[in-house]
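Q: Start with the shorter request: fold the first protein.
A: Done. Sequence, then structure:
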Amino acid sequence: MKTIALLTSGGDAPGMNAAIRAVVRRAIDHGLVVHGTRRGYEGLIKGDFTRLDARDVGGILHGGGTILGSARSNEFKTEEGRKKAIAQLEALGADALVVIGGNGSQTGSLSLSKMGFPVIGIASTIDNDLFGSEPSIGADTALNITIESLDRLRTTGASHHRAHIVETMGRDFGYLGLMAGIAGGAEVISVPEAEVGAQEIAERLRDASTRGKTHSIVVVAEGCKETANAIAKHFADHEAEIGFLIRVTILGHVVRGGAPTAFDRLLATRLGVAAVDALQHGEKGRLVGMLGSQVRTTSLDEVASTRKTLDLELIRLAQVLAR
Protein backbone atom coordinates (compact mmCIF):
# COMPACT_ATOMS: atom_id res chain seq x y z
CA MET A 1 0.00 0.00 0.00
CA LYS A 2 1.37 3.37 -1.06
CA THR A 3 -1.53 5.81 -1.39
CA ILE A 4 -4.81 6.30 0.45
CA ALA A 5 -7.72 8.66 -0.18
CA LEU A 6 -9.68 10.30 2.61
CA LEU A 7 -13.09 11.95 2.78
CA THR A 8 -15.60 13.31 5.26
CA SER A 9 -19.27 12.73 4.52
CA GLY A 10 -22.74 13.46 5.85
CA GLY A 11 -23.41 15.96 8.62
CA ASP A 12 -20.29 17.63 9.99
CA ALA A 13 -19.28 16.66 13.51
CA PRO A 14 -16.84 18.41 15.87
CA GLY A 15 -13.69 16.30 15.81
CA MET A 16 -13.71 15.48 12.10
CA ASN A 17 -10.68 17.74 11.59
CA ALA A 18 -8.84 16.01 14.41
CA ALA A 19 -9.51 12.69 12.66
CA ILE A 20 -8.26 14.06 9.33
CA ARG A 21 -5.08 15.24 11.03
CA ALA A 22 -4.52 11.88 12.69
CA VAL A 23 -5.06 9.91 9.47
CA VAL A 24 -2.66 12.10 7.50
CA ARG A 25 0.12 12.14 10.06
CA ARG A 26 -0.13 8.42 10.86
CA ALA A 27 -0.11 7.62 7.15
CA ILE A 28 3.01 9.74 6.63
CA ASP A 29 4.58 7.90 9.55
CA HIS A 30 3.96 4.68 7.59
CA GLY A 31 5.44 6.20 4.43
CA LEU A 32 2.07 6.60 2.69
CA VAL A 33 0.73 9.40 0.53
CA VAL A 34 -2.69 10.82 1.44
CA HIS A 35 -5.12 12.60 -0.88
CA GLY A 36 -8.09 14.35 0.67
CA THR A 37 -11.38 14.40 -1.23
CA ARG A 38 -13.32 17.65 -1.20
CA ARG A 39 -17.12 17.57 -0.63
CA GLY A 40 -17.53 13.91 0.27
CA TYR A 41 -18.88 11.39 -2.22
CA GLU A 42 -19.89 14.17 -4.60
CA GLY A 43 -16.25 15.21 -4.86
CA LEU A 44 -15.16 11.60 -5.13
CA ILE A 45 -17.27 11.12 -8.26
CA LYS A 46 -15.73 14.26 -9.77
CA GLY A 47 -12.18 13.37 -8.74
CA ASP A 48 -11.80 16.50 -6.61
CA PHE A 49 -8.64 15.45 -4.76
CA THR A 50 -5.95 17.41 -2.94
CA ARG A 51 -2.73 15.98 -1.56
CA LEU A 52 -2.41 16.40 2.20
CA ASP A 53 0.95 16.67 3.92
CA ALA A 54 1.78 17.18 7.59
CA ARG A 55 1.73 20.97 7.32
CA ASP A 56 -1.61 20.94 5.48
CA VAL A 57 -3.29 19.57 8.60
CA GLY A 58 -1.46 21.78 11.07
CA GLY A 59 -3.65 23.98 13.29
CA ILE A 60 -6.89 22.11 12.60
CA LEU A 61 -7.04 19.93 15.72
CA HIS A 62 -9.23 22.38 17.63
CA GLY A 63 -11.48 23.43 14.73
CA GLY A 64 -15.07 22.35 14.25
CA GLY A 65 -16.53 21.28 10.92
CA THR A 66 -14.32 19.68 8.27
CA ILE A 67 -11.63 21.29 6.14
CA LEU A 68 -12.50 18.85 3.35
CA GLY A 69 -16.16 19.86 3.28
CA SER A 70 -19.17 17.59 2.90
CA ALA A 71 -22.09 17.29 0.49
CA ARG A 72 -25.04 15.03 -0.28
CA SER A 73 -24.74 13.02 -3.49
CA ASN A 74 -27.77 11.47 -5.14
CA GLU A 75 -25.56 10.23 -7.97
CA PHE A 76 -23.47 8.17 -5.56
CA LYS A 77 -26.61 6.26 -4.56
CA THR A 78 -26.65 4.76 -8.06
CA GLU A 79 -24.38 1.95 -9.21
CA GLU A 80 -23.19 4.09 -12.09
CA GLY A 81 -22.20 6.84 -9.67
CA ARG A 82 -20.26 4.42 -7.49
CA LYS A 83 -18.45 3.04 -10.55
CA LYS A 84 -17.38 6.60 -11.39
CA ALA A 85 -16.09 7.02 -7.83
CA ILE A 86 -14.01 3.84 -8.02
CA ALA A 87 -12.68 4.85 -11.43
CA GLN A 88 -11.51 8.16 -9.95
CA LEU A 89 -9.81 6.38 -7.06
CA GLU A 90 -8.05 4.02 -9.45
CA ALA A 91 -6.95 6.90 -11.66
CA LEU A 92 -5.51 8.59 -8.57
CA GLY A 93 -3.59 5.42 -7.76
CA ALA A 94 -5.31 5.06 -4.39
CA ASP A 95 -4.97 1.67 -2.75
CA ALA A 96 -7.69 2.31 -0.15
CA LEU A 97 -10.26 4.87 1.03
CA VAL A 98 -10.89 6.15 4.56
CA VAL A 99 -14.43 7.49 5.16
CA ILE A 100 -15.17 9.66 8.21
CA GLY A 101 -18.93 9.86 8.79
CA GLY A 102 -22.14 8.39 10.17
CA ASN A 103 -24.82 5.95 9.06
CA GLY A 104 -25.38 7.16 5.51
CA SER A 105 -21.66 7.64 4.94
CA GLN A 106 -20.79 4.14 6.15
CA THR A 107 -23.58 2.66 4.05
CA GLY A 108 -21.71 4.26 1.15
CA SER A 109 -18.47 2.73 2.43
CA LEU A 110 -20.10 -0.68 2.45
CA SER A 111 -21.32 -0.31 -1.11
CA LEU A 112 -17.80 0.51 -2.34
CA SER A 113 -16.38 -2.37 -0.32
CA LYS A 114 -18.87 -4.78 -1.90
CA MET A 115 -17.71 -3.57 -5.31
CA GLY A 116 -14.19 -4.63 -4.40
CA PHE A 117 -12.52 -1.40 -3.31
CA PRO A 118 -10.75 -1.47 0.09
CA VAL A 119 -12.47 0.87 2.56
CA ILE A 120 -12.13 1.64 6.26
CA GLY A 121 -14.76 3.76 8.03
CA ILE A 122 -14.31 6.04 11.04
CA ALA A 123 -17.38 6.54 13.25
CA SER A 124 -18.34 10.21 13.29
CA THR A 125 -21.83 11.56 14.02
CA ILE A 126 -23.25 13.82 16.71
CA ASP A 127 -26.38 11.60 16.81
CA ASN A 128 -24.34 8.73 18.27
CA ASP A 129 -26.66 6.32 16.44
CA LEU A 130 -23.96 4.43 14.52
CA PHE A 131 -23.52 0.80 15.55
CA GLY A 132 -19.90 -0.13 16.18
CA SER A 133 -18.82 2.80 18.32
CA GLU A 134 -19.91 4.11 21.71
CA PRO A 135 -19.61 7.02 21.43
CA SER A 136 -18.90 8.36 17.95
CA ILE A 137 -16.87 11.47 17.11
CA GLY A 138 -18.83 14.66 17.77
CA ALA A 139 -21.41 13.25 20.18
CA ASP A 140 -19.67 14.49 23.32
CA THR A 141 -19.35 18.04 21.97
CA ALA A 142 -22.99 18.12 20.86
CA LEU A 143 -24.09 16.78 24.24
CA ASN A 144 -22.11 19.41 26.13
CA ILE A 145 -23.48 22.25 23.99
CA THR A 146 -27.02 20.93 24.51
CA ILE A 147 -26.54 20.75 28.28
CA GLU A 148 -25.09 24.27 28.36
CA SER A 149 -28.18 25.48 26.49
CA LEU A 150 -30.48 23.79 29.01
CA ASP A 151 -28.57 25.39 31.87
CA ARG A 152 -28.97 28.83 30.32
CA LEU A 153 -32.67 28.33 29.68
CA ARG A 154 -33.21 27.16 33.25
CA THR A 155 -31.73 30.42 34.52
CA THR A 156 -34.06 32.63 32.50
CA GLY A 157 -36.98 30.27 33.12
CA ALA A 158 -36.62 30.66 36.88
CA SER A 159 -36.70 34.43 36.51
CA HIS A 160 -40.03 34.41 34.65
CA HIS A 161 -41.76 31.28 35.96
CA ARG A 162 -41.56 29.61 32.57
CA ALA A 163 -41.43 26.11 31.18
CA HIS A 164 -39.04 25.83 28.25
CA ILE A 165 -39.72 23.14 25.66
CA VAL A 166 -36.37 22.40 24.05
CA GLU A 167 -36.02 20.42 20.84
CA THR A 168 -32.67 18.69 20.46
CA MET A 169 -30.98 17.19 17.41
CA GLY A 170 -30.44 13.45 16.95
CA ARG A 171 -32.51 12.42 13.91
CA ASP A 172 -34.60 9.40 14.97
CA PHE A 173 -32.29 8.32 17.82
CA GLY A 174 -32.94 9.76 21.27
CA TYR A 175 -29.39 9.68 22.67
CA LEU A 176 -28.77 13.44 22.77
CA GLY A 177 -32.21 14.22 24.14
CA LEU A 178 -32.09 11.55 26.83
CA MET A 179 -28.55 12.20 28.06
CA ALA A 180 -28.89 15.97 27.96
CA GLY A 181 -32.24 15.75 29.70
CA ILE A 182 -30.80 13.69 32.56
CA ALA A 183 -27.63 15.77 32.90
CA GLY A 184 -29.61 19.00 32.56
CA GLY A 185 -32.24 18.02 35.12
CA ALA A 186 -35.21 18.14 32.75
CA GLU A 187 -38.66 17.59 34.24
CA VAL A 188 -39.85 15.77 31.12
CA ILE A 189 -37.88 13.92 28.43
CA SER A 190 -39.56 12.75 25.24
CA VAL A 191 -37.54 10.65 22.78
CA PRO A 192 -38.66 8.57 19.78
CA GLU A 193 -38.05 5.37 21.74
CA ALA A 194 -40.33 6.53 24.60
CA GLU A 195 -42.41 9.46 23.42
CA VAL A 196 -44.44 11.48 25.92
CA GLY A 197 -47.67 12.98 24.59
CA ALA A 198 -48.69 16.61 25.02
CA GLN A 199 -51.42 15.78 27.52
CA GLU A 200 -49.04 13.86 29.78
CA ILE A 201 -46.46 16.65 29.49
CA ALA A 202 -49.13 19.12 30.62
CA GLU A 203 -49.94 16.94 33.63
CA ARG A 204 -46.29 16.62 34.63
CA LEU A 205 -45.75 20.38 34.34
CA ARG A 206 -48.88 21.06 36.37
CA ASP A 207 -47.62 18.67 39.02
CA ALA A 208 -44.20 20.37 39.04
CA SER A 209 -45.85 23.77 39.52
CA THR A 210 -48.02 22.42 42.33
CA ARG A 211 -44.90 21.09 44.06
CA GLY A 212 -43.49 24.61 44.07
CA LYS A 213 -41.08 24.51 41.16
CA THR A 214 -40.40 27.96 39.70
CA HIS A 215 -39.43 26.68 36.26
CA SER A 216 -39.36 23.49 34.19
CA ILE A 217 -37.48 22.06 31.24
CA VAL A 218 -39.08 19.73 28.71
CA VAL A 219 -36.65 18.03 26.31
CA VAL A 220 -38.14 16.79 23.04
CA ALA A 221 -35.85 14.83 20.73
CA GLU A 222 -35.86 15.68 17.04
CA GLY A 223 -37.37 12.39 15.86
CA CYS A 224 -40.53 12.55 18.00
CA LYS A 225 -43.86 12.62 16.18
CA GLU A 226 -45.02 15.54 18.33
CA THR A 227 -42.48 18.33 17.84
CA ALA A 228 -41.72 21.04 20.38
CA ASN A 229 -43.78 23.55 18.40
CA ALA A 230 -46.72 21.16 18.15
CA ILE A 231 -46.67 20.58 21.90
CA ALA A 232 -46.49 24.31 22.62
CA LYS A 233 -49.44 24.93 20.30
CA HIS A 234 -51.41 22.36 22.27
CA PHE A 235 -50.68 24.41 25.41
CA ALA A 236 -51.45 27.80 23.86
CA ASP A 237 -54.71 28.48 25.71
CA HIS A 238 -53.94 26.49 28.85
CA GLU A 239 -50.87 28.15 30.38
CA ALA A 240 -52.80 29.30 33.46
CA GLU A 241 -53.99 25.75 34.11
CA ILE A 242 -50.50 24.33 33.65
CA GLY A 243 -48.91 26.89 35.94
CA PHE A 244 -46.08 28.02 33.66
CA LEU A 245 -45.66 30.35 30.72
CA ILE A 246 -44.52 28.22 27.78
CA ARG A 247 -41.57 29.03 25.54
CA VAL A 248 -39.98 26.94 22.75
CA THR A 249 -36.31 26.70 21.79
CA ILE A 250 -35.16 24.70 18.75
CA LEU A 251 -31.45 24.10 19.23
CA GLY A 252 -30.86 22.88 15.67
CA HIS A 253 -27.46 23.03 14.01
CA VAL A 254 -25.87 25.19 16.70
CA VAL A 255 -24.94 21.97 18.55
CA ARG A 256 -22.87 20.80 15.54
CA GLY A 257 -20.71 23.91 15.45
CA GLY A 258 -17.78 25.15 17.45
CA ALA A 259 -14.64 23.58 18.83
CA PRO A 260 -14.65 19.90 19.77
CA THR A 261 -14.27 18.93 23.41
CA ALA A 262 -11.05 17.37 24.66
CA PHE A 263 -12.81 14.01 24.65
CA ASP A 264 -13.77 14.31 20.97
CA ARG A 265 -10.26 15.45 20.00
CA LEU A 266 -8.74 12.44 21.74
CA LEU A 267 -11.35 10.04 20.36
CA ALA A 268 -10.91 11.34 16.80
CA THR A 269 -7.14 11.11 17.10
CA ARG A 270 -7.24 7.52 18.33
CA LEU A 271 -9.71 6.43 15.65
CA GLY A 272 -7.79 8.20 12.88
CA VAL A 273 -4.55 6.48 13.83
CA ALA A 274 -6.32 3.13 14.18
CA ALA A 275 -7.87 3.45 10.71
CA VAL A 276 -4.46 3.71 9.05
CA ASP A 277 -3.09 0.88 11.18
CA ALA A 278 -6.05 -1.31 10.24
CA LEU A 279 -5.32 -0.76 6.54
CA GLN A 280 -1.66 -1.57 7.10
CA HIS A 281 -2.72 -4.83 8.74
CA GLY A 282 -4.81 -5.77 5.73
CA GLU A 283 -8.24 -4.97 7.18
CA LYS A 284 -10.92 -3.64 4.86
CA GLY A 285 -14.70 -3.34 4.84
CA ARG A 286 -14.69 -2.42 8.53
CA LEU A 287 -15.56 0.49 10.79
CA VAL A 288 -13.13 1.81 13.40
CA GLY A 289 -14.87 2.79 16.63
CA MET A 290 -14.58 2.88 20.41
CA LEU A 291 -16.19 -0.02 22.27
CA GLY A 292 -15.71 0.03 26.02
CA SER A 293 -12.30 1.59 26.51
CA GLN A 294 -10.78 -0.07 23.47
CA VAL A 295 -10.52 0.91 19.81
CA ARG A 296 -12.00 -1.92 17.77
CA THR A 297 -13.20 -2.62 14.24
CA THR A 298 -16.63 -3.89 13.24
CA SER A 299 -17.75 -5.29 9.89
CA LEU A 300 -19.48 -2.63 7.76
CA ASP A 301 -22.12 -5.27 6.97
CA GLU A 302 -22.94 -5.47 10.68
CA VAL A 303 -22.79 -1.69 11.08
CA ALA A 304 -25.27 -1.14 8.24
CA SER A 305 -27.68 -3.87 9.33
CA THR A 306 -27.78 -3.26 13.10
CA ARG A 307 -29.72 -0.52 14.85
CA LYS A 308 -28.29 0.91 18.04
CA THR A 309 -30.72 0.99 20.98
CA LEU A 310 -31.17 3.21 24.03
CA ASP A 311 -31.16 1.94 27.59
CA LEU A 312 -34.77 2.75 28.47
CA GLU A 313 -34.05 2.16 32.15
CA LEU A 314 -32.51 5.65 31.98
CA ILE A 315 -35.95 7.02 31.06
CA ARG A 316 -37.37 5.67 34.29
CA LEU A 317 -34.38 7.04 36.18
CA ALA A 318 -35.01 10.49 34.70
CA GLN A 319 -38.63 10.41 35.90
CA VAL A 320 -37.51 9.63 39.44
CA LEU A 321 -34.94 12.42 39.44
CA ALA A 322 -37.41 15.00 38.12
CA ARG A 323 -39.45 15.03 41.37
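Q: Next, the second protein, separately.
A: Sequence, then structure:
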Amino acid sequence: MDFVRTPEARFVGLPDYPFAPNYVDVGHGLRMHYLDEGPPDGEAILLLHGQPTWSYLYRHVIPALVAPGLRVIAPDLIGFGRSDKPTRRSAYTVHSHVKWLEDLVSRLGLTGITLVAQDWGGPIGLGVLARQPERFARVVATNTVLHTADASLAGQLTWSCHTAADGSMVIEPALLDYQRMTQELAQFCPSLFVQGATVSELPENVQRGYDAPFPDESYCAGARQLPLLMGLTPGSECARINRRTLSALAAFRGPFLTAFSDGDPSTRGWESVLRHIAPGAAGMDHCTIACAGHFVQEDQGVALGGVISRFVATHPT
Protein backbone atom coordinates (compact mmCIF):
# COMPACT_ATOMS: atom_id res chain seq x y z
CA MET A 1 0.00 0.00 0.00
CA ASP A 2 1.40 3.37 -1.00
CA PHE A 3 1.50 5.86 1.85
CA VAL A 4 3.19 9.04 3.02
CA ARG A 5 4.56 9.80 6.47
CA THR A 6 4.45 13.37 7.82
CA PRO A 7 7.97 14.63 8.62
CA GLU A 8 8.67 14.73 12.35
CA ALA A 9 9.78 18.35 12.07
CA ARG A 10 6.12 19.31 11.58
CA PHE A 11 5.40 18.25 15.18
CA VAL A 12 8.25 20.03 16.94
CA GLY A 13 7.31 22.71 19.45
CA LEU A 14 3.55 22.31 19.37
CA PRO A 15 1.95 24.16 22.31
CA ASP A 16 0.86 22.04 25.28
CA TYR A 17 1.84 18.81 23.53
CA PRO A 18 4.93 17.47 25.33
CA PHE A 19 4.03 13.81 24.89
CA ALA A 20 6.44 11.20 23.53
CA PRO A 21 5.37 9.40 20.35
CA ASN A 22 4.77 5.65 20.22
CA TYR A 23 4.12 3.47 17.18
CA VAL A 24 2.62 0.10 16.32
CA ASP A 25 2.25 -1.64 12.96
CA VAL A 26 -1.31 -2.28 11.82
CA GLY A 27 -2.91 -3.67 8.70
CA HIS A 28 -0.56 -4.20 5.79
CA GLY A 29 2.57 -2.52 7.06
CA LEU A 30 1.13 0.80 8.17
CA ARG A 31 2.55 2.60 11.20
CA MET A 32 -0.04 3.91 13.66
CA HIS A 33 0.93 6.56 16.18
CA TYR A 34 -0.39 6.66 19.72
CA LEU A 35 0.30 8.41 22.99
CA ASP A 36 0.80 6.27 26.09
CA GLU A 37 0.79 8.40 29.23
CA GLY A 38 0.46 7.53 32.90
CA PRO A 39 1.41 4.37 34.80
CA PRO A 40 1.61 1.20 32.67
CA ASP A 41 -0.50 -0.67 35.23
CA GLY A 42 -3.20 2.02 35.43
CA GLU A 43 -6.69 1.46 34.07
CA ALA A 44 -6.61 2.00 30.32
CA ILE A 45 -8.46 5.03 28.94
CA LEU A 46 -8.70 4.94 25.13
CA LEU A 47 -9.22 8.46 23.74
CA LEU A 48 -10.47 8.57 20.15
CA HIS A 49 -10.59 11.61 17.91
CA GLY A 50 -12.47 12.09 14.66
CA GLN A 51 -12.44 14.25 11.55
CA PRO A 52 -10.25 16.24 10.88
CA THR A 53 -8.25 16.14 14.13
CA TRP A 54 -5.66 13.93 15.82
CA SER A 55 -4.42 13.21 19.36
CA TYR A 56 -3.44 16.87 19.68
CA LEU A 57 -7.14 17.46 20.37
CA TYR A 58 -6.77 15.69 23.74
CA ARG A 59 -3.71 17.61 24.98
CA HIS A 60 -5.67 19.22 27.86
CA VAL A 61 -7.68 16.09 28.70
CA ILE A 62 -4.66 13.81 29.16
CA PRO A 63 -3.10 15.50 32.22
CA ALA A 64 -6.47 15.44 34.02
CA LEU A 65 -6.56 11.66 33.57
CA VAL A 66 -2.91 10.92 34.34
CA ALA A 67 -3.11 12.83 37.63
CA PRO A 68 -5.36 10.23 39.37
CA GLY A 69 -3.19 7.37 38.06
CA LEU A 70 -4.95 6.35 34.87
CA ARG A 71 -3.13 5.07 31.79
CA VAL A 72 -4.09 7.08 28.71
CA ILE A 73 -3.86 5.69 25.17
CA ALA A 74 -4.60 8.29 22.49
CA PRO A 75 -4.05 7.03 18.93
CA ASP A 76 -4.06 8.91 15.68
CA LEU A 77 -6.36 7.25 13.18
CA ILE A 78 -4.64 6.08 10.00
CA GLY A 79 -4.54 9.08 7.66
CA PHE A 80 -4.30 11.56 10.54
CA GLY A 81 -1.72 12.98 12.92
CA ARG A 82 1.60 11.15 13.07
CA SER A 83 0.09 7.95 11.66
CA ASP A 84 0.83 6.80 8.11
CA LYS A 85 -1.39 8.16 5.37
CA PRO A 86 -2.29 5.90 2.43
CA THR A 87 -2.36 8.01 -0.71
CA ARG A 88 -5.28 6.30 -2.43
CA ARG A 89 -8.75 7.21 -1.22
CA SER A 90 -9.98 3.67 -1.84
CA ALA A 91 -7.79 2.53 1.08
CA TYR A 92 -10.10 4.32 3.50
CA THR A 93 -13.32 2.57 4.43
CA VAL A 94 -15.19 2.41 7.73
CA HIS A 95 -14.31 -1.27 7.98
CA SER A 96 -10.60 -0.56 7.43
CA HIS A 97 -10.60 2.12 10.14
CA VAL A 98 -12.27 -0.29 12.57
CA LYS A 99 -9.79 -3.02 11.69
CA TRP A 100 -6.76 -0.72 12.05
CA LEU A 101 -7.90 0.37 15.51
CA GLU A 102 -8.69 -3.22 16.45
CA ASP A 103 -5.13 -4.15 15.50
CA LEU A 104 -3.76 -1.44 17.81
CA VAL A 105 -5.94 -2.56 20.73
CA SER A 106 -4.98 -6.20 20.22
CA ARG A 107 -1.26 -5.61 19.75
CA LEU A 108 -1.07 -3.42 22.84
CA GLY A 109 -2.95 -6.11 24.77
CA LEU A 110 -5.43 -3.62 26.16
CA THR A 111 -8.17 -4.91 28.47
CA GLY A 112 -10.54 -3.28 30.92
CA ILE A 113 -10.72 -0.34 28.51
CA THR A 114 -12.70 2.80 29.16
CA LEU A 115 -13.53 4.01 25.66
CA VAL A 116 -13.89 7.77 25.16
CA ALA A 117 -15.36 8.37 21.72
CA GLN A 118 -15.96 11.71 19.99
CA ASP A 119 -16.99 12.36 16.38
CA TRP A 120 -15.76 9.44 14.18
CA GLY A 121 -14.28 7.92 17.33
CA GLY A 122 -17.83 6.67 17.95
CA PRO A 123 -18.42 4.60 14.79
CA ILE A 124 -14.80 3.40 14.78
CA GLY A 125 -14.24 2.81 18.50
CA LEU A 126 -17.67 1.36 19.19
CA GLY A 127 -17.18 -0.71 16.05
CA VAL A 128 -14.17 -2.30 17.75
CA LEU A 129 -16.20 -2.81 20.93
CA ALA A 130 -18.80 -4.66 18.86
CA ARG A 131 -16.09 -7.02 17.61
CA GLN A 132 -14.25 -7.51 20.92
CA PRO A 133 -16.61 -6.50 23.75
CA GLU A 134 -14.62 -8.51 26.29
CA ARG A 135 -11.83 -5.93 26.13
CA PHE A 136 -14.04 -3.02 27.22
CA ALA A 137 -15.22 -2.08 30.71
CA ARG A 138 -16.89 1.32 30.22
CA VAL A 139 -17.84 3.86 27.57
CA VAL A 140 -17.95 7.65 27.57
CA ALA A 141 -19.68 9.00 24.46
CA THR A 142 -19.18 12.69 23.74
CA ASN A 143 -20.45 14.51 20.64
CA THR A 144 -20.61 11.42 18.46
CA VAL A 145 -23.13 9.76 16.16
CA LEU A 146 -23.91 6.32 14.76
CA HIS A 147 -25.78 7.22 11.60
CA THR A 148 -27.99 4.47 10.21
CA ALA A 149 -30.59 6.61 8.39
CA ASP A 150 -33.28 4.37 9.88
CA ALA A 151 -36.87 5.61 9.94
CA SER A 152 -36.92 5.18 13.74
CA LEU A 153 -34.62 8.22 14.06
CA ALA A 154 -37.30 10.60 12.79
CA GLY A 155 -37.86 13.40 15.28
CA GLN A 156 -34.99 12.35 17.53
CA LEU A 157 -32.09 14.32 16.05
CA THR A 158 -31.52 18.06 15.68
CA TRP A 159 -29.69 17.40 12.42
CA SER A 160 -32.12 14.97 10.79
CA CYS A 161 -30.93 11.92 8.91
CA HIS A 162 -33.61 9.29 8.46
CA THR A 163 -35.78 7.46 5.97
CA ALA A 164 -39.24 8.95 5.42
CA ALA A 165 -42.48 6.97 5.21
CA ASP A 166 -42.42 7.08 1.41
CA GLY A 167 -38.85 5.74 1.28
CA SER A 168 -37.22 9.09 0.54
CA MET A 169 -34.41 10.49 2.67
CA VAL A 170 -34.65 13.39 5.11
CA ILE A 171 -31.15 14.83 5.59
CA GLU A 172 -30.13 18.05 7.30
CA PRO A 173 -28.57 20.24 4.57
CA ALA A 174 -25.67 21.14 6.89
CA LEU A 175 -24.51 17.51 6.75
CA LEU A 176 -24.28 17.68 2.97
CA ASP A 177 -22.73 21.15 3.10
CA TYR A 178 -20.03 19.82 5.38
CA GLN A 179 -19.28 17.02 2.94
CA ARG A 180 -19.18 19.50 0.07
CA MET A 181 -16.82 21.87 1.88
CA THR A 182 -14.32 19.10 2.63
CA GLN A 183 -14.13 18.32 -1.08
CA GLU A 184 -14.20 21.84 -2.51
CA LEU A 185 -11.52 23.49 -0.37
CA ALA A 186 -8.49 23.96 -2.57
CA GLN A 187 -6.23 23.69 0.49
CA PHE A 188 -7.34 21.33 3.22
CA CYS A 189 -6.91 23.11 6.58
CA PRO A 190 -8.26 21.22 9.61
CA SER A 191 -7.93 24.35 11.73
CA LEU A 192 -10.73 25.98 9.72
CA PHE A 193 -13.13 23.22 10.71
CA VAL A 194 -11.97 23.12 14.32
CA GLN A 195 -12.33 26.88 14.68
CA GLY A 196 -15.74 26.75 13.03
CA ALA A 197 -17.00 24.20 15.56
CA THR A 198 -15.59 25.61 18.80
CA VAL A 199 -16.76 28.52 20.94
CA SER A 200 -13.24 29.59 21.93
CA GLU A 201 -10.80 31.45 19.70
CA LEU A 202 -7.88 29.32 18.58
CA PRO A 203 -4.46 31.01 18.79
CA GLU A 204 -2.40 30.83 15.61
CA ASN A 205 0.08 28.36 17.11
CA VAL A 206 -2.80 26.02 18.06
CA GLN A 207 -4.19 26.28 14.54
CA ARG A 208 -0.76 25.26 13.24
CA GLY A 209 -0.92 22.24 15.54
CA TYR A 210 -4.11 21.01 13.91
CA ASP A 211 -2.71 21.63 10.43
CA ALA A 212 0.70 20.07 11.16
CA PRO A 213 -0.08 16.55 9.85
CA PHE A 214 -0.89 17.82 6.33
CA PRO A 215 2.06 19.57 4.66
CA ASP A 216 0.39 19.39 1.23
CA GLU A 217 -2.44 17.71 -0.65
CA SER A 218 -0.61 14.39 -1.00
CA TYR A 219 -1.18 13.80 2.73
CA CYS A 220 -4.93 14.55 2.66
CA ALA A 221 -6.56 11.48 1.07
CA GLY A 222 -7.89 10.11 4.36
CA ALA A 223 -9.01 13.49 5.66
CA ARG A 224 -10.83 14.19 2.39
CA GLN A 225 -12.43 10.74 2.20
CA LEU A 226 -13.75 10.23 5.72
CA PRO A 227 -16.60 12.79 5.48
CA LEU A 228 -17.92 10.96 2.41
CA LEU A 229 -18.23 7.73 4.42
CA MET A 230 -20.96 8.95 6.81
CA GLY A 231 -23.94 6.61 6.95
CA LEU A 232 -26.42 9.03 5.38
CA THR A 233 -28.30 6.31 3.49
CA PRO A 234 -29.50 2.98 4.89
CA GLY A 235 -27.46 0.89 2.46
CA SER A 236 -24.11 2.59 3.01
CA GLU A 237 -21.26 0.63 4.55
CA CYS A 238 -21.21 2.95 7.56
CA ALA A 239 -24.94 2.53 8.21
CA ARG A 240 -24.66 -1.26 8.01
CA ILE A 241 -21.71 -1.32 10.42
CA ASN A 242 -23.45 1.09 12.78
CA ARG A 243 -26.54 -1.14 12.93
CA ARG A 244 -24.38 -4.06 14.02
CA THR A 245 -22.66 -1.79 16.54
CA LEU A 246 -25.98 -0.62 17.99
CA SER A 247 -27.04 -4.25 18.35
CA ALA A 248 -23.80 -4.97 20.19
CA LEU A 249 -24.35 -1.96 22.46
CA ALA A 250 -27.76 -3.34 23.39
CA ALA A 251 -25.95 -6.39 24.75
CA PHE A 252 -23.07 -4.50 26.40
CA ARG A 253 -23.57 -4.37 30.18
CA GLY A 254 -20.71 -2.06 31.12
CA PRO A 255 -21.33 1.45 32.50
CA PHE A 256 -22.17 3.85 29.67
CA LEU A 257 -22.00 7.63 30.13
CA THR A 258 -22.94 10.44 27.74
CA ALA A 259 -21.08 13.75 28.12
CA PHE A 260 -22.22 15.81 25.15
CA SER A 261 -21.72 19.58 24.96
CA ASP A 262 -24.34 22.31 24.93
CA GLY A 263 -23.19 23.81 21.64
CA ASP A 264 -23.18 21.05 19.04
CA PRO A 265 -26.37 20.75 16.99
CA SER A 266 -24.69 18.26 14.64
CA THR A 267 -24.80 15.53 17.31
CA ARG A 268 -27.68 16.69 19.50
CA GLY A 269 -30.21 13.95 20.07
CA TRP A 270 -27.73 11.11 19.78
CA GLU A 271 -27.06 11.19 23.52
CA SER A 272 -30.70 10.22 24.09
CA VAL A 273 -30.60 7.54 21.39
CA LEU A 274 -27.48 5.97 22.90
CA ARG A 275 -28.81 6.13 26.45
CA HIS A 276 -31.97 4.35 25.33
CA ILE A 277 -30.04 1.55 23.64
CA ALA A 278 -27.17 0.87 26.06
CA PRO A 279 -28.32 -0.98 29.23
CA GLY A 280 -25.32 0.38 31.13
CA ALA A 281 -26.60 3.93 30.67
CA ALA A 282 -29.44 3.39 33.14
CA GLY A 283 -28.91 5.30 36.36
CA MET A 284 -25.73 7.03 35.18
CA ASP A 285 -25.04 10.66 36.04
CA HIS A 286 -25.14 11.82 32.42
CA CYS A 287 -24.00 15.39 31.92
CA THR A 288 -23.99 18.27 29.48
CA ILE A 289 -20.69 20.13 29.28
CA ALA A 290 -21.36 23.85 29.11
CA CYS A 291 -19.65 26.44 26.93
CA ALA A 292 -18.39 23.96 24.35
CA GLY A 293 -18.95 23.29 20.68
CA HIS A 294 -18.46 20.10 18.71
CA PHE A 295 -14.80 19.85 19.71
CA VAL A 296 -15.50 19.74 23.42
CA GLN A 297 -11.89 18.71 24.11
CA GLU A 298 -10.66 22.01 22.71
CA ASP A 299 -13.23 24.17 24.50
CA GLN A 300 -13.47 22.30 27.83
CA GLY A 301 -10.70 19.70 27.91
CA VAL A 302 -10.04 19.88 31.65
CA ALA A 303 -13.76 19.62 32.40
CA LEU A 304 -14.08 16.57 30.14
CA GLY A 305 -11.07 14.99 31.82
CA GLY A 306 -12.74 15.47 35.19
CA VAL A 307 -15.96 13.86 33.98
CA ILE A 308 -14.04 10.83 32.72
CA SER A 309 -11.88 10.37 35.82
CA ARG A 310 -14.88 10.66 38.17
CA PHE A 311 -16.82 8.17 36.06
CA VAL A 312 -14.00 5.62 36.29
CA ALA A 313 -13.56 6.17 40.03
CA THR A 314 -17.26 5.79 40.83
CA HIS A 315 -17.80 2.71 38.64
CA PRO A 316 -14.95 0.31 39.44
CA THR A 317 -14.66 -2.95 37.55
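Q: Describe the second briefly.
A: The first helix runs from residue 62 to 66. The chain has a mean pLDDT of 98.
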